[in-house]
Protein 1
Amino acid sequence: MTRKVVSLSKIRKARARNEKRATADANAVKFGRSKAKRDLDHARQRQSEDRLDAHRKDDTE
């Protein structure tokens, strides 16, 4: 009955990475925005920038 020799620090680090990844996934679901909302915000931002640029005066005098 020989067992495999393992490094405890590697196991501890792997466990910490897995816990961190699980926390990140949970936060992404809880606080993340859907693609539709991101696209809508991007379109609104672009529209407001275009509207502002349309009111800009030309310096060609």
Note: The chain is about 70% helix and 0% strand.
Protein 2
Amino acid sequence: MLCIYWQNQKKYQRKWQLLLISLKHARLSATPEKIARRNAARITDTGCYRDLDKQIRDPKTLNEIVFPETFEETKTMIEIADFIARCKAIDIQVTMLPPVFYTRNMTTTWTEKLYDYFQETVAPELFRLTESEVYDSVYHANHEGQKRVTNQLIQQLLEREELVE
């Protein structure tokens, strides 16, 4: 067992670094204000926050999500594509859903190529929040954003050919 550790020491060191970074982020982001807001929000059975009916931070002050300029296949993408292929082989339909996000300037070329790679038909623009839908970060939607994304996603899934009998 110890021999395996030393053979993979760099991998384990990187995992520890990532754990420490995530713990530091959790500690720094857990301000009394954030904790009070989250305690006041209603949480669903799935763990989602509900009734976030206002905007806590001005979207103009948030750091933007940077999308790559060129599309390149990664090891993770290959693994996901392999998983999707295995599911399709046993008649399981897979739908990839990214998190909601906010960005002011975004070229759709990269996301379109990503969705083409996975042969995904749900429009990536569906998950892009408008300025008025941002709650407190580029990944958190307020009630208005949650409602729009959910309703449009349901509508798109209902209209998919492979799901219509």
Note: The radius of gyration is 20 Å.
